[in-house]
């Protein structure tokens, strides 16, 4: 007993257990160790960070939504500003250089602006500056007013001009004592351009009260305890939104006290969260900066709000303990099934193999022994399956190629057409051509049959093509010219039978005849090192690469109308054991060249 225990400990110390006998206790040990360790780490980590992380994420999401809403509101104001300066009356008034130039037109402009502000509550007032030193103001709560103001003295004038029509935003741009308002005002400022020639006519200023900014995002807070602040590009407070006056005072004090820290954070990152202290209380501050006008959106929440959320961890602890107990109970069944189930699956697969169903076992083995057994069985099944499929496929291909070769040899329609041509020549008294045609036809079929042999010489193959073209030249006079270029020494080289004639037939019927004028078919044979190169080329209509692929695809789908390219390729593939011996080069209008690079010599089985 002690010896077995020592061996078990030694086996565990050197790595995972290699024997099935040690798998169950080792698995139980791992399950218990994993669940207990995981429970401890989860509780410890979640107790420290979960509530804080959730609040930070929710705050950042809220702040992002607030910025999106504010951006949308500013964009709406931008669209309204385009409507204002595009008004025909305002354009005509400013083109005269003076907003006082026509009182009737002024009245129309005032009425238009007032109606617009009534329809769009976010606009508090609209100010129009001309180049004559006047300002024309229309507000929701007061009558239109006129003032003598030199716009060039405004601190923002140079930036507005340099922006070339793009708007800028400025905080609390008041124009005088009459503009006294509660809260802050954001001024939307842009050039007014002539809509005909884009010449500057004046400046448009639209005032937006901070209440409108708050209203833009008020529906996003949903009664949460978040306090929201919006700062401009100079970190001045635009909005400080709190639920009550005390919260507002705390918000302003917190922003003022930690202003330097916030500015440093704004420079370092565009978004983030940090903790700040105000007296004895601690707050979490989440911010989002950047954007089109570099405003900062800040949310502040007290740490007290997190304490209630931590209570959920107590419930979570109980849930984890229940889950751990369930895991220990279920694991006993799972571990036992992990051993028995793979063996049963392997037995079922083995029982199906004799009937021809070679099913591989795909379940992940749970032990070293099962892994070795599975791998050996799957390798055997894979090899048997591949061998059977290969034999079946090759037999199908061989039978198909043999059938196509036989059809290509017999070609009843070719024989009938040739006999018709002989009959016509005989009736016409062309006895010499009749003799020539009969001799060519007899030689063609004698060489094609070749006593049932699959292998003939290059010379015999060339002779078959010669006889075929002699017959076709009688049937299609003045349609093509045949040229043969055969090097000495190529004639006795053995090759598969009937590899050139189907290709020559394709050149004639699909290359030369559609051309509509006389063409040339060139047959060449030459010997290069250990190979013989056979080439059939024509100057017919040619083919694109897509057409070649389509032809081969159609042949592969079993829609073969003639032996053609695919039949020849399949025979050569089987004959030369998948070697790359077949090449097609073609361009539309330039003809087609098919090259066969065939090794010298053949295997003994093919000779018989």
From TrEMBL:
Native source species: Paenibacillus rhizolycopersici
UniProt KW keywords: Cell membrane, Coiled coil, Kinase, Membrane, Phosphoprotein, Transferase, Transmembrane, Transmembrane helix, Two-component regulatory system
Catalytic activity line of the entry: ATP + protein L-histidine = ADP + protein N-phospho-L-histidine
Ranges that cross the membrane: 20-43, 313-335
Membrane topology, from the record: Multi-pass membrane protein
Record's protein name: histidine kinase
Protein localization: Cell membrane
PROSITE patterns noted in UniProt: HAMP
Coiled-coil segments: 370-404
Domain HAMP span(s) in chain numbering: 337-389
A GO molecular function held by the record: kinase activity
SMART domains: HAMP, HATPase_c
EC number(s) on file: 2.7.13.3
InterPro entries (alphabetical): Bact_2-comp_sensor_kinase, dCache_1, HAMP_dom, HATPase_C_sf, HATPase_dom, Sig_transdc_His_kin-like_C, Sig_transdc_His_kin_internal
Broad enzyme group: transferase
């Amino acid at each position: 007993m002690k010896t077995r225990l020592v061996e078990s400990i030694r086996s565990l110390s050197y790595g995972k257990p290699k024997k099935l006998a040690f798998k169950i206790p080792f698995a139980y040990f791992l399950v218990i160790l994993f669940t207990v360790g995981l429970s401890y780490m989860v509780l410890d980590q979640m107790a420290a960070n979960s509530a804080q992380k959730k609040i930070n994420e929710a705050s950042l999401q809220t702040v992002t939504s607030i910025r999106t809403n504010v951006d949308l509101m500013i964009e709406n104001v931008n669209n309204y500003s385009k409507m204002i300066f595009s008004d025909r009356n305002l354009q005509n008034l400013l083109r005269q250089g003076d907003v006082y130039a026509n009182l009737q037109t002024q009245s129309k402009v005032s009425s238009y602006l007032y109606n617009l502000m009534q329809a769009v509550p976010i606009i508090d007032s609209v100010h129009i500056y001309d180049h004559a030193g006047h300002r024309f103001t229309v507000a929701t709560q007061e009558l239109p007013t006129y003032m003598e103001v030199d716009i060039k003295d405004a601190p923002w004038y140079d930036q507005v001009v340099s922006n070339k029509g793009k708007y800028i935003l400025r905080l609390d741009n008041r124009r005088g004592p009459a503009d006294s308002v509660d809260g802050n005002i954001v001024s939307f400022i842009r050039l007014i351009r002539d809509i005909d020639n884009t010449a500057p006519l004046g400046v448009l200023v639209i005032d937006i009260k901070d209440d409108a900014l708050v209203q833009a995002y008020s529906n996003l807070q949903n009664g949460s305890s978040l306090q929201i602040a919006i700062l401009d590009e100079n970190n001045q407070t635009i909005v400080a939104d709190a639920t009550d006056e005390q919260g507002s005072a705390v918000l302003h004090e917190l922003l003022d006290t930690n202003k330097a820290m916030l500015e440093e954070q704004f420079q370092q990152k565009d978004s983030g969260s940090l903790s700040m202290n105000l007296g004895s209380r601690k707050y979490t501050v989440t911010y989002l900066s950047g954007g089109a006008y570099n405003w900062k959106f800040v949310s502040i929440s007290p740490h007290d709000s997190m304490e209630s959320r931590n209570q959920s961890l107590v419930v979570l602890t109980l849930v984890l303990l229940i889950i751990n107990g369930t895991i220990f109970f279920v694991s006993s069944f799972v571990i036992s099934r992990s051993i028995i189930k793979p063996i049963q699956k392997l037995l079922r697969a083995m029982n199906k193999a004799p009937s021809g169903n070679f099913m591989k076992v795909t379940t992940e083995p749970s032990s070293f022994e099962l892994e070795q057994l599975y791998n050996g069985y799957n390798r055997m099944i894979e090899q048997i399956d591949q061998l059977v499929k290969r034999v079946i496929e090759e037999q199908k291909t061989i039978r198909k190629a043999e059938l196509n070769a036989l059809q290509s040899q017999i070609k009843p329609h070719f024989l009938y057409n040739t006999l018709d041509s002989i009959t016509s020549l005989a009736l016409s008294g062309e006895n010499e051509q009749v003799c020539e045609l009969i001799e060519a036809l007899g030689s063609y079929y004698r060489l094609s049959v070749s006593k049932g042999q699959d292998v003939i010489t290059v010379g015999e193959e060339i002779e078959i093509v010669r006889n075929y073209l002699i017959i076709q030249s009688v049937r299609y006079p003045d349609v093509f010219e045949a040229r043969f270029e055969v090097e000495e020494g190529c004639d006795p080289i053995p090759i598969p039978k009937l590899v050139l004639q189907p290709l020559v037939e394709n050149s004639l019927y699909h290359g030369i005849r559609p051309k509509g004028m006389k063409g040339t078919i060139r047959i060449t044979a030459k010997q290069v090192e250990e190979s013989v190169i056979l080439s059939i080329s024509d100057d017919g209509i040619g083919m694109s690469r897509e057409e070649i692929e389509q032809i081969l695809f159609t042949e592969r789908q079993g829609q073969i109308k003639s032996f053609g390219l695919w039949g020849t390729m399949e025979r050569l593939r089987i004959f030369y054991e998948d070697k790359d011996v077949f090449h097609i080069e073609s361009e539309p209008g330039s003809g087609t060249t098919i090259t066969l690079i065939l090794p010298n010599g053949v295997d003994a089985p093919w000779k018989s």
